[in-house]
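The records we work with from here on pair a chain with its fold. The integers have meaning only within a learned vocabulary of local backbone shapes. A complete example follows; check for yourself that the lines match position by position.

:::
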Amino acid sequence: MTVADLCLLAAVVVYIATIAIPKAVARQQFDNAKPRDPAFYKDPFRARALGAHLNGIESFPLFAVAVILAEMHGASQTMVDDLAVAFVMVRIAYVAAYYTDRPTLRSILFCVGFALNLAIFFAPVWAAGPKPA
């Protein structure tokens, strides 16, 4: 199992923890029988946490596909590992920016994360190098 493979699991843990933390903190107000009750998410912090959680779910498929394809098609494993770790770190920073209501920073971090996914996706192309004429 590679570091990038472990980062796939880490990315899932990040998006689950993103919503688990506010639910745990507000356990008196959270009703597990109604986990999607809109009333619970009227609180601004909880609403931002939900937004970060949903974005984590939305961003995960591209990350997973990029890692799997890069590994299948002979990309430099070190490069894929490093980019995957960077992506998870950016996602953690993204959640922190969302939690602390910093929308500009959050958008920048989203773009950085997307660029990292593209870099992972195209890593096999860079591993192949230029083709002789």
Remarks:
- The CA atoms of residues 30 and 36 lie 10 Å apart.
- Helices lie at 3-25, 44-72, 77-99, 103-128.
- The chain has one domain: 3-128.
